[in-house]
Automatic annotation (TrEMBL):
Pfam family, any one: YajQ
Lineage, highest ranks first: Bacteria, Bacillati, Actinomycetota, Actinomycetes, Micrococcales
Protein's name according to its UniProt entry: Nucleotide-binding protein CLV85_1917
Keyword terms: Nucleotide-binding
Family: Belongs to the YajQ family.
Source organism per UniProt: Salinibacterium amurskyense
Length: 162
C-alpha cells in the first residue's frame, strides 16, 4: 500500500482578504468616531496602508481591519503589521500579507514532527511548503492535531490529504 500524505502550506485567500478590506472601508466610512480623522485603508496588491490623523485613530483602524479578517476566517498570523509612524500630518501603518512558509519556520515545524509526532511520520521541505508522509492515516491526523496545538508564528493550512 502506498504512503498517505498531506501538505502544510501558509497561504492567504486573496479574495477573502480583499473582501475583508472592503468591509473595513465601509465600516470606517459609516462609523461616527472615524468622521473627520482621515481614516482609510488602501490595498496595493501585496501591502495594506492604514491612515488616520492620530496614532490612536490609526490603531483603531487596525483593530477594525483585524476584526474583519477574523470574521472572514483569515488568521491574524498571516498579517505582518508594522508600528504606527508619522507621515506629514497623518499617522500610517503598513501591513504585508505573509504567503508561504519561510525556511526557518519550515525547519521548526519539521523538527516538531521529528521529535513529537509518531515515528512512522516523515516530513520534507518543498520550497515554501512541507510534505508530510506516513503509512498510517491515523498518524497523519494525530500530526495535524499536534501542529494545530502548537503556538507557531505562521498560519498553517493542511491540503492535499491523500
Amino acid at each position: 500500500m502506498a504512503d498517505s500524505s498531506f501538505d502544510i502550506v501558509s497561504k492567504v485567500d486573496q479574495m477573502e482578504a480583499e473582501n475583508a478590506v472592503n468591509q473595513a472601508q465601509k465600516e470606517l466610512a459609516q462609523r461616527y468616531d472615524f468622521k473627520g480623522v482621515g481614516a482609510s485603508v488602501e490595498w496595493t496588491g501585496e501591502k495594506l496602508l492604514l491612515k488616520a490623523s492620530a496614532e490612536e485613530r490609526v490603531k483603531a483602524v487596525l483593530e477594525v481591519l483585524e476584526a474583519k479578517f477574523i470574521k472572514r476566517g483569515i488568521s491574524l498570523r498571516s498579517l505582518d503589521a508594522g508600528e504606527p509612524f508619522p507621515s506629514g500630518k497623518e499617522y500610517r501603518i503598513e501591513i504585508s500579507l505573509k504567503n508561504g512558509i519561510s525556511s526557518e519556520d519550515a525547519k521548526k515545524i519539521s523538527k516538531i514532527i521529528r521529535d513529537e509526532a509518531p515515528k512512522s511520520v516523515k516530513s520534507q521541505i518543498q520550497g515554501d511548503e512541507l510534505r508530510v508522509q506516513s503509512k498510517s492515516r491515523d498518524d497523519l491526523q494525530s500530526t495535524m492535531a499536534l501542529l494545530k496545538g502548537k503556538d507557531l508564528e505562521v498560519a498553517l493550512q493542511f491540503v492535499n490529504f491523500r
